[in-house]
Specification:
4 domains, 6-stranded mixed sheet, two-stranded antiparallel sheet, 24 helices
Length: 507
């Protein structure tokens, strides 16, 4: 294959990256040809756009993919083995003190994981795959998208091999499938198209979009863990709204979360100008549109990792997409024509746990989304009957706790996606109430830091002569509430409060 001359970003040419240079050297000594392919090549090429700030890819790790061929001009040990890529991976693992992982022995695929010396540094993944039928070109034509089918050959360091015209698509910011068959061969690539579009800020070209729509249902054949990884990675990207809308249009979202299918049957009503499925999707554009206007402390919380590979913002977007999954089974229309969804928040939260189990979510991720779904109505409900009392506000802040920033983001997104005529008269007031609720949280945190600890559980049990149980926590929470609104200021008042709490309970 003839090479195409390119310019690499400063310090990003593959031969300038220490670990890549080492791999090429080890491969040469082992008697195999190793070519760098995929995202590492794509992201190293200077195409006149702002580059990624580091070698970390969209998932936050450093990832290098190598296509491996036995070198017929060599007679070294690796060449004689049936799986040159696996054999090379073993040699690399030994040479670089990495962890060898067998991925697919029958197809000659293995991984080496390099653990960083500092816990704060990302892991490096080195993937090795033998070329299909011993041909580099045939191997490239089996890759997913043209921008990922660009190849670096260390023997031609100033050019890249580009048999699918991926360079042109990279420069034009276009995601194009190498062929329709590559999507059928691995249906996860239907979702990956949107992940790469989000990561690169690219458009999916029309023919490929048609393939994605045609084969969206094939995603159901893919292992749920793989789907979760791809979707989390997509949602971690800064701008995903337009892509989520498109994924909804082609039926892909229901393949990711089947619970959304029933949402399509709930129609618009006086409060919701959109049908339920469209409302759920619309929360994502609303969230992204509002995000930059939110206070710094909210944005800072959102960018923190919730779990490895998933920011709190990404998890909030997922919660927004799922926040109304309890509505289809609680939907009723009154004789007056009013649509009701009584208890949909609680039912929706209950539905998160089996969904999370199926999708292989972590406990932390599950709890976070579950809590946001359960509480998504609370910010608005606080103001339905007027201005809430300081006690009610403090109870809200204390109950929601560290999820306040994300719950408020969800509340704004939900409210923005709800524009029915029945809400028009209240809209400005409720908007102002939500803003005030959000802005009051930092002051609440500062005030609670200054509260003295007047009593603990042991004190409560001693005063009341009772054994440990849930009542202890209830009393302490109520005591904290009384402190917050300055009904209790010292130990004597705290003891009197505890005794009175028990007396009221016994009445």
């Amino acid at each position: 294959m003839l090479g195409t001359k390119v310019s690499f970003l400063p310090g990003r040419s593959p031969l300038e990256v220490d670990v890549v240079r080492q791999i090429f050297s080890i491969a040469s000594a082992a008697g195999v040809k190793a070519y760098l392919v995929g995202g590492a090549v794509r992201d190293a090429i200077d195409v006149g756009r702002k580059p990624a700030q580091s070698l970390k890819g969209e998932a936050g790790a450093i990832d290098f993919d190598f296509a491996v061929l036995a070198d017929s001009s060599q007679s070294n040990a690796v060449e004689t083995k049936p799986n040159p890529a696996i054999s090379l991976a073993m040699v690399v693992a030994d040479a670089l003190a990495g962890h060898f992982v067998m991925l697919d022995q029958s197809n000659d695929i293995a991984r080496v994981v390099l653990v960083p010396s500092e816990p704060s540094e990302p892991q490096t993944y080195l993937d090795f795959a033998g070329c299909i039928e011993g041909s580099l070109e045939r191997d490239i034509l089996r890759r997913d998208f043209t921008v990922n089918a660009i190849v670096f050959d260390p023997e031609q360091p100033e050019v890249v091999l580009d048999p699918t015209a991926g360079l042109q698509d990279l420069r034009n910011n276009v995601i194009r499938a190498v062929s329709e068959s590559v999507l059928v061969d691995d249906p996860l690539r239907v979702l990956r198209a949107y992940r790469f579009a989000a990561y690169l800020g690219a458009e999916i070209e029309p023919v490929t979009r048609g393939y994605l729509k045609q084969h969206a249902k094939l995603l159901g054949q893919v292992a749920r863990e793989r789907i979760s990884y791809e979707f989390f990675t997509l949602m971690n990207c800064e701008k995903v709204a337009r892509l989520i809308v498109e994924m909804g249009e082609i039926g892909l979202l229901e393949e990711i979360y089947p619970e959304l299918k029933d949402c399509r049957r709930v129609t618009a009503n006086s409060f919701h100008h959109l049908a339920l499925f469209d409302h759920s999707v619309e929360t994502i554009p609303q969230l992204e549109n509002r995000f930059q206007a939110l206070p710094d402390w909210v944005q800072q919380s959102a960018h923190l990792p919730l779990v490895p590979g998933v920011t709190r913002l990404a998890a909030t977007k997922i919660a927004a997409l799922l926040h109304d999954i309890g509505k289809p089974d609680t939907w009723e229309i009154t004789p007056e024509g009013r649509h009701t969804f009584i208890g949909h928040d609680k039912l929706g939260a209950e539905m998160i746990r089996p969904l999370a189990d199926r999708e292989k979510w972590s406990k932390t991720m599950t709890r976070f989304v579950e809590r946001l779904v359960l509480w998504h109505l609370r910010p608005g409900h606080l103001f339905h009957t007027g201005t809430p009392s300081p006690k009610a506000l403090n109870r809200f802040y204390r109950t929601v706790g560290e999820e306040v920033p994300e719950l408020m983001m969800l509340a704004f997104a939900d409210f923005g996606a709800t524009c029915g005529a029945g809400l028009a008269a209240e809209r400005d007031r409720l908007e102002q109430c939500l803003v005030a609720l959000m802005n009051g949280y930092p002051a609440y945190i500062e005030a609670t830091k200054k509260l003295p600890k007047l009593m603990d559980g042991a004190d409560v049990m001693r005063i009341l002569g009772i054994k440990p149980g849930p009542i202890i926590g209830e009393i302490l929470n109520s005591l904290t509430e009384a402190q917050e609104i300055k009904e209790v200021m010292n130990v004597a008042q705290a003891e009197a409060f505890v005794r009175s709490y028990k007396a009221v309970e016994n009445q």
